[in-house]
Fold:
Amino acid sequence: MQNEDECDAKIQLGEAAVKQRDFRKAEEYFQQAWSMTEKYAYLQSRQERLLTNLGITYMLQYRTSEAVTTFKKLLDAKSDQCKSDSEFPADCAKAQVHLATATAMTGDVAGALAIINSAVDNYRRQVRLDDFDVEKYVHQARQGEAMALKAVFMVRTGEVAHAQTIITDAKSMLESVVAVADSEPGALELARNVLAAITDAATQILSQERR
Structure:
């Protein structure tokens, strides 16, 4: 129990350091926690959270190659959920969104598009698998978020008209979620936040199309 508390405390300290933009200290805490997860098998369930935190920390410092390597490790950890018959493809999709973002930052936009396309498909499949409305709302919001990211990548490849179509579809889907998710406050807040981001992206893409 003591080791679990210590490991969790280091992760939380690292996350707090990221918010304060003290990335050196954040990485130090995350690496200390990682060492503990390697030493004690019962702490290994924390590795996915740590990989996500480390990858984000690298991206915020524009250490893109390290971010890509880290998110590839995260995606490898989710490989079972990336299969066509997996039960929780959203777990795979979440890691793919991180990897796609880092990949685009390296300049490999074509590679990022391939990854984000798979993420959108995995979120779409998750929505079909979800039994409860709240799960559907959350995953539809995440799907819309991934679609918006795809549209941004497509603008960078010059496919502005196609990007506009994708962002319009994402916006329409999120508007539908917002309209029906009022009974689920958490899902509603997420959907509203994503919709705001998508609306902003749509405005930017439209300005690109008019140039």
Remarks:
- The mean pLDDT is 93.
- The radius of gyration is 18 Å.
- The first helix runs from residue 2 to 19.
- The CA atoms of residues 167 and 202 lie 6 Å apart.
